[in-house]
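Reading a protein record of the kind used here takes only a little practice. Think of the row as the fold of the chain written in a discrete alphabet. With that in mind, consider the following protein and its fold in token form:
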Amino acid sequence: MTGQAATTQRRRLIGAGMLGAALVLGLAACASAAPSEDLPDGVSVRLVQQRSDVALHQAQVEITNGTDSTLSVEALSVSDPRFESDADRVLQRTSVIAPGSTVGIRIQLPGPACDVPDEAASTVEFSWHAGDRSGVARADLPDALDFLPAMHERECVADALGDAAAVSFTSFEAGAGGGVGILTLGALPTGAGGATIDAIRPTNLLGFGAAGTGADAALPLRVELAAGDTVPRDVEIALEPFRCDAHAVQEDKRGTIFTVDVTVGGEAGQIELAASPDMRAEILNAVAAYCGFGS
């Protein structure tokens, strides 16, 4: 072999070796970014529902980054047999979590699946990046405030009540009745029957005067929904505030979400009935007027 041929051969061998090394490095890089079903070491998750989440039927997945690297979280969903579908994050964006920090990612809760026990378990899945590592984590999601069983039970009672009647707050008249105003609960029976709207309970902000202001008080309603009954019902409820506290009204989150006692199919239960956003604003403005805020 001539000197020139030998040189060419050596160059080919070196080139092949460099290519092989590059392939090995490339495969290693791909392996470091491969999806994993484990949470990154030092990362923890839990499910919570704040007062501000209730009316919007939302919750939050709190992710705590206990690592030394910034953690980025993109797609995220929660699965639970008590939901009729997966719960996805409300805002589709990247959440950046600094080392030692906790971020709550808000999810929209689906409707209930009522053929499963109230006691079940949630699982969270999300894609993440931290430095030169990335993956897709899937992990058990603890219900830190234990709110899901009660919420699931109430929503399934509400579904069953819906077979007998459509129930909602239909109107609010500020100042009527000499108090904050008159809130009207409407029931539109389907004719199926088998249900009763028994009573309504006060909120943290609003009661019903002498008719029911204690912590466990309930204003009787006694709306019977018999088989064959399709006559609409309206029940007027006079509202009075527990106290005139401007801060309580300004910071209110649940003051217009009422617990209603019902009986469906012979079983006692409760549902939560919320004023619409517009009606909520009207009620809070009426409380402010009644209490003389700003006068």
The domain at 43-146 is CATH 2.60.40.10 (Immunoglobulin-like).
